[in-house]
Amino acid sequence: MRLFSWNVNGIRAVLKKGDFEKFLAYENPDILCLQETKAKEEQSEFDSPEYKEYWNSAERKGYAGTAIFLKNEIKVLNVFKNFEKFEDLKIEEDSFGNPNIEGRILTLELKGFFVVTVYVPNSKRGLERLKLRETSFDPTFNEYLKRLQEEKPVVVCGDFNAAHEEIDLARPKDNIKNAGFTAEERQGITNYLSSGLIDTFRELHPTEERYTWWSNFGNARANNVGWRIDYFFISKDLKPRLKSAEIYESVFGSDHCPISIELSEEK
Asked: Which domains are delineated in the chain?
């Protein structure tokens, strides 16, 4: 089973460019998780007879949002938006808005595992949203993943808006206190991994310096001055099934590129 994740930075824009359908036709994913869709389902012009679509769109128009497309033959047992499964969980609001209504988390329960896609809030250039990340979003989402793992393994992917280690960005020393590479955000990633999850790309490529996002300024992508802030994490129980973890830097259409993992069939 091939699972892909991509922050499309607006699905209507990437569809208009033609990149999305080219990518889908060439890679033929079994499951495709999207972040920053910036649209409601009825606003998307994508329609494929091979895939069924699940959306969690933000209440605010043209903002955030997640979606999962998967092959028709894959049986979905349950669909959960945000923290519907555990109603006691909720993220705090801040001056920028209410993350609970921004379509940031979407979960599908399959036979063998949960698939979760997430779009973690950006801490902002002036770190105005760092406190939200540190004290509410990351701990609450981590608790959510822990509870899911008590029932069955988890595959969680998406834009975590943070590079974990120095190897995960081109210029770590220049960004040590900047959004996406603060100690607090890095600790958030460490906490996810300490809760029974594996960083699939780093597991299979321990020394590769490759990135998933590039700034729109300074020819960053052409010069490969990037960050690895998009991840596939899996429960340790799924590690024996992990066959590959890849990054697709040559796929354009967004400031992020797609990433993928391949899991062997359950024995």
From this structure: 2-263 (3.60.10.10)
